[in-house]
Amino acid sequence: MTDTAEHIATEPELPKQDKLQRALFRFRQSRLSMLGAVMVALVVFFTAFGTLLAPFPEHIAGGVDTAARFQPPSWAHPFGTNELGQDVLSLVMAGTTVSVLAGLSVVLIGTVIGTLVGAIAGFAGGWIDEILMRLTDLTLTIPGLILAMAVAAALGPGFTNMIIAISLSWWPGYARLVRGEVLAVREESYVNAARAIGASPSRILLRHILPNTVSPIIVKMSLDMGFAILMVAGLGFIGIGIRPPTPEWGTLLSVSRSYMPDYWWTAMAPGMAMFFAVFGFNLLGDGLRDILDPKARR
Amino acid sequence: MLQFIVRRVLLLIPVLVGLTVIMFAIARILPGDPVALAAGPNATQAEIEALTVEYGLDQPVWVQYGHYVSGLLQGDLGTSLLTRRPVAADIAAYLPATLELVFAAMAIAVLLGIPLGLVTAVWRNRWPDYLSQVAAIGAISMPRFFLGLLLQLCFAMWLAWLPLGGRLPIIVIPPPSVTGFLTIDALIAGDWTAFTTALSHLAMPAIAMSLSPLATIMRMMRSSTIEVMQQDYVMTARALGLPRRQIITKYVARNAVSATLTVIGLYFGWLLGGTVLVETVFDWPGLGLYATKAIVSQDMMPVIGVALVIGLLFVLANLVIDLLYGVINPKVRYS
């Protein structure tokens, strides 16, 4: 990352039509952000079409081919086959859908709850603020993974339960962020003006305050996507997330552990896929932060 | 100073009460019958009922919570249905392993991250800097458990340089427990064999844990160093003709570290909660493995206990960091 001074130094060359174009220009200037965007685009592509494009769709549905167990990587099976003779590449491609949608759901739920809590706390102030923020701080002291593990174990395995479990620990960051932003703009003159002409509190909040908090939220969401995907995979890995035969990266990796070191290739594709997706989202988020949220730059 | 500490400690009380309420609420929505599980498959109905009464599970939830809290105040975290041992004793047995792992990972992260951050800041915008920035984001993106598996595959299974997992093989006599950290206890006892064995077991899990905090500390240190280097007093020192090395070690590094400290405090809690996956990969007998095993057998008291202890340690770590902040940066006054 370069620092603010250098960005300002390049400013005069920028096209000055509007803010969006300026942001896009700056984004394209940063090679790492572009790399991140391309990687995320690939991940999104596989989320949408991974199951359709998989070379062995029958294996995704749970089909087995015991004659072809544990085949090392070859042209037919670039990442080999697993203990059931299933094509690892096909499973991982289909797993993209599961992992990315799960991660996205967690981030979206976390954003909605956190934004609501933070906006209400910051806007209402007083004892409402006090109670909501104490609850937020409290949730932050419980390690996310442990809380998610406990809730996931209590609710039982499955896609929805796992998303609920992770989301419960995901909102406090957004609540704090949004509350801070709301407090910062609450006393701005345009908010006072809206109040003076008799706008209702909900209108002030939705039309005048929240739109100003969008950029930091987007930045946080893109940085969080990677970590949400990791959390989903982590729960799968310790066996309390999504259960087989649904192909999920963490679960696939966990199963492959039993067949190390002889059949090491069964672990490579799921692990690399996780790394690739998270890396992409982190690069993108990092680039977006530089553009949208210069204050938070480190 | 004393007043500050007392106030911070008093503020812990509502946090801990809240923690117990949340964790207890989760424990009670658990489906399934943990008592039947503890009693075993051949238990009669009478035996199950006796156990239910023994564990107090026949009483209303708020009475159970009251019992739990009054027990907590006496250092009683409940009884594990699975191991049938007091949770407090189990945690006392597993906690040192987790702490040893966390401190080892933190030591690697701090000892490498701070100098690397300093160096990349000094070499700013040259290729080693760019390379390290990409590597840092890559390191943060690497799933710890996948990295752990790769390390195992490479150094334990193929090269056979390091043991696959565990903390100390049974054949090695553990050193007398002083700190609970096997590496340090072995050094205190002067037992070289036990030390190298313990260290060889600690190496891979600690490396797998350290990568993400290492990268974050490095990035944090880099940006705070850049900020400090633009301060007037650094300019002055430069104008006075002080040697570059002296400026960086004496003026820049010290000020840059204090900003990085907060991240270290936050990461301590993150590492404590995040050992679960690495402990699972390396079969490291710590709190994470204990909690995972308990969850799988629907044994909730250990999970509540582990979450409480980790939450408490997290809050304490932040307190320590706040105090350290004042020591390193005298400008900070306790208010």
UniProtKB/TrEMBL annotation, chain A:
Q: What is its main location?
A: membrane
For this protein, the parts annotated as crossing the membrane are 32-54, 100-124, 145-170, 222-243, 263-285
Q: Which residues form the signal peptide?
A: none
What species is given as this protein's source? Answer: Paracoccus methylarcula
Write down what this protein is called: ABC transporter permease
Classification via InterPro entries: BP-dependent_transpt_permease, MetI-like, MetI-like_sf, OppC_N
What Gene Ontology cellular-component terms does the record carry?
plasma membrane
Q: Which Pfam families match?
A: BPD_transp_1, OppC_N
Location of the protein in the cell: Cell membrane
Q: Report the family membership.
A: Belongs to the binding-protein-dependent transport system permease family.
| Boundaries of every ABC transmembrane type-1 domain copy | 100-285
Which PANTHER family does this entry report, sorted A to Z?
Answer: D,D-DIPEPTIDE TRANSPORT SYSTEM PERMEASE PROTEIN DDPC-RELATED, OLIGOPEPTIDE TRANSPORT SYSTEM PERMEASE PROTEIN APPC
From TrEMBL, chain B:
Q: Which UniProt keywords apply?
A: Cell membrane, Membrane, Transmembrane, Transmembrane helix, Transport
Which InterPro entries does the record associate with it? BPD_transp_1_N (IPR045621), MetI-like (IPR000515), MetI-like_sf (IPR035906)
Q: How does it sit in the membrane?
A: Multi-pass membrane protein
The question of whether Transmembrane is a record keyword is answered with: yes
SUPFAM superfamilies under this entry?
MetI-like
* UniProt entry tagged with the keyword Signal: no
The similarity comment for this entry is: Belongs to the binding-protein-dependent transport system permease family.
Query: Which residue ranges does the record assign to the ABC transmembrane type-1 domain?
Result: 95-325
**Matching Pfam families, A to Z?**
BPD_transp_1, BPD_transp_1_N
- On the tree of life, the source organism's domain of life is Bacteria
Under PROSITE patterns, the record lists: ABC_TM1
For this UniProt entry, the molecular function terms from Gene Ontology, in alphabetical order, are:
dipeptide transmembrane transporter activity
Q: Which organism is it from?
A: Paracoccus methylarcula
| Primary localization class, coarse | membrane
Where are the bilayer-spanning segments? 9-30, 101-123, 144-164, 202-221, 252-272, 303-328
Q: Where in the cell is it found?
A: Cell membrane
Official protein name in the record: ABC transporter permease
GO cellular component terms, semicolon-separated = plasma membrane
